[in-house]
Amino acid sequence: MSRVGKVPIIIDAGTTATIEGKKITVSGKLGKLEYEFSGLINVAINDNNINVTPKDSEDKNARAYWGLTRNLIANMVKGVSVGFIKELELKGVGFKAELKGEFLSLVLGKSHDTKYLIPKDITIECPKPTEILIKGYDKQRVGHVAALIMKLRKVEPYKGKGVLLKGQRVIRKEGKKK
């Protein structure tokens, strides 16, 4: 039995959820998200709770989708009401980030500035030249944008330079010896 799947999802005030067939739509103050769940799962809305149950508790695939579906719907509910934030930091001499219109301009130790086009559903802020805040209501989309920006300059293990998540630990390698 799924311990995660048993927990009901509480719908916040100002957030609405509707089910049409195998599709759930959640809308709130930040936006609207849809998810089409598997036919092996039952999703029901009771009062201010969303309950997820498998149609056949003996089916291995139904049990596998049970907790997954519950967490995806919970992330949708949290995203449209509160939102998600990923914090990135730039480590390296001269590395900096700044917003220029609809682009994020990054100086990453290359011969030219790297420009990243900011998607319409994502908000990016640079409170400091070495910090980037990525905000949005879709958890998958926020993580994907953060991964794309981190991929522009991967963290190298000898000096620890690059774009990384705030608080991420870099395992350093020992350099050459004489």
Task: List the defining traits of the structure above.
single chain, 178 residues, Outer Surface Protein A, domain 3, 2 domains, 3-stranded antiparallel β-sheet, 3 helices, 13 strands, 36% strand, elongated
The helix-strand sequence is HEEEEEEHEEEEEEHE
Sequence of strands across the biggest β-sheet = 11-12-7-13
Distance between the termini: 58 Å
Going by helix content, strand content and strand pairing, the class is alpha+beta
Describe the protein in words.
The chain is of the alpha+beta class and 178 residues long. It folds into 2 domains: 3-81, Alpha-Beta Complex (Outer Surface Protein A, domain 3); 84-165, Alpha-Beta Complex (Outer Surface Protein A, domain 3). The protein is 22% helix and 36% strand. It has 3 helices and 13 strands. The strands form 4 sheets. It has a 4-stranded antiparallel sheet with strand order 11-12-7-13, with helices on one face. Strand 9 (103-107) and strand 10 form a beta hairpin. The chain is elongated and about 65 Å long. It starts with a helix and ends in a 13-residue tail after the last strand.
In short:
This protein has 178 residues and is an alpha+beta fold.
Topology:
Blueprint: H1 3-6, E1 9-10, E2 16-20, E3 23-27, E4 32-36, E5 41-46, E6 49-54, H2 60-81, E7 84-91, E8 96-100, E9 103-107, E10 114-117, E11 123-125, E12 131-136, H3 139-151, E13 162-165
Antiparallel strand pairs: 1-6, 2-3, 3-4, 5-6, 7-12, 7-13, 8-9, 9-10, 11-12
